[in-house]
Amino acid sequence: MEQKNEKIEVVYKKAKLGKRFLAYFIDIGLFLLSSFIFLSISNTVFTKTPLYTSRMDELTQIKNDSALYVDGTDLITYVDNLKNPDQSAYSYAQRKEIISDHINQFYSNPTYFSDTTLINEQYKARKLNTNLFEPDGSEKSGAPAENLYNFYKSEFQDHSLAYLVNSQRYFYLTRFAFLSIVIQFVVISTIVFAVFFLVLPLTCFKRGRQTIGMKLENIGLITIDAENQSTGKYLLRVLFNYGVFYLLNFVSFLIPSFVSISMVFITKTNSSLTNYVFNDYCVDVTDKKIYFNALEREEAQLQMKKMSIENRDLHLK
After folding, report:
1. Exposed (0-12), middle (13-18) or buried (19+): which is 96, by Cβ within 10 Å?
2. In 3-state terms, what secondary structure has residue 189?
3. pLDDT > 60? residue 316
4. Contact (Cβ atoms closer than 8 angstroms) between residue 255 and residue 2
5. pLDDT in tens, 53-73
6. Residue 244 contacts by C-beta under 8 Å, 6 or more apart in sequence?
7. How many CB atoms lie within 10 A of CB 262?
8. Does residue 215 form part of some domain?
9. DSSP of 56-81
10. Domain assignment of residue 223, yes or no
11. To the nearest whole number, what is the mean pLDDT of the chain?
């Protein structure tokens, strides 16, 4: 007698959108918090290394040598905080004299300019665009000190600082400081991303490939065959998420995230972009576990059927 194969079906409930979004925000929150903590620790350690301190000391020295900074403080802030012997603030006349003298020193420094004559001619032209200076570039007699102070202040902020920032060594050192933070952020956040979204779902929460947020909200991930996602395919899934939702989001103003969220609301199965690409689903596992493969599922269900027969009540008439 030929035995027919019995079809065994497993029915999962779709995970509610509220639970899915809550799990997502838990995961993102933990990811950002952990990244910030480890980045702070890393940066604190790095800024104490000889490599970093030597370059920052050199940057401070370049600022001070330019005459646009005094003891690491920019010139405007420095003069505005100066006090007379009676503890009164410096007058506009006092402040504009200091600022103009320092700007002249900077524009005459060949360390920063290959052609100081050209720079000073441009500076003179900007002076003559006002009614505060004589044709030779000297201050007009009787020109209001406050107006002269405001001119020198604007010159410092709009032109002098720009020249300094664009000087070769200054630019190199500030870029070094900026890139050190960027590189630390990329490396640390990548490691944290791998721990939360790859290592934990492959080890601690491998049944359903759950993240911490998914575990707390009883959400699991299944394939189209209602089975646990294989290690290889899940690895590809994480690499896809890293490339699209981590790297690409930074350069595309979060467009991939908006597309994915829109798909959750539009598609019949509430599939995100990643669900759609890898043909998997987020399901509620509050009352049902996810099986690693078809054999485990069939064995479990046959065992349940056997237990049901053995425990069935016997009624005699």
Report:
1. buried
2. helix
3. no
4. no
5. 999 999 999 999 999 999 889
6. 256, 273, 274
7. 12
8. yes
9. HHHHHHHHHHTTSEETTEEHHHHHHT
10. yes
11. 91
Q: Is 254 helix (H, G, I), strand (E, B) or coil?
A: coil
List of E strands, 188-285: 219-223, 280-284
Q: Which two structure tokens, joined as six digits, stand for 6?
A: 């019995």
- Shared domain check, 189 and 131: no
Give Cα separations from 164 to 1, 156, 158, 241 (angstroms).
Answer: 93, 10, 11, 42
**Are residues 79 and 222 located together in one domain of the fold?**
no
Question: At residue 240, what are phi and psi to the nearest 5 degrees?
Answer: -65, -45
Q: What percent of the chain has pLDDT over 90?
A: 81
Q: Which of 228, 200, 204, 237 is nearest to 300 (CA)?
A: 228
Tell me the pLDDT band of 9, cut-offs 50, 70 and 90. low
**Residue 138 shares a structural domain with residue 76:** yes
> What are the residues whose beta carbons fall under 8 Å from the beta carbon of 191, sequence distance 6 or more?
38
Within-domain flag for 232:
yes
Question: 222: Cβ–Cβ under 8 A, 6 or more apart, which residues?
Answer: 12, 208, 228, 229, 280, 281, 283, 290
Amino acid at 104: N
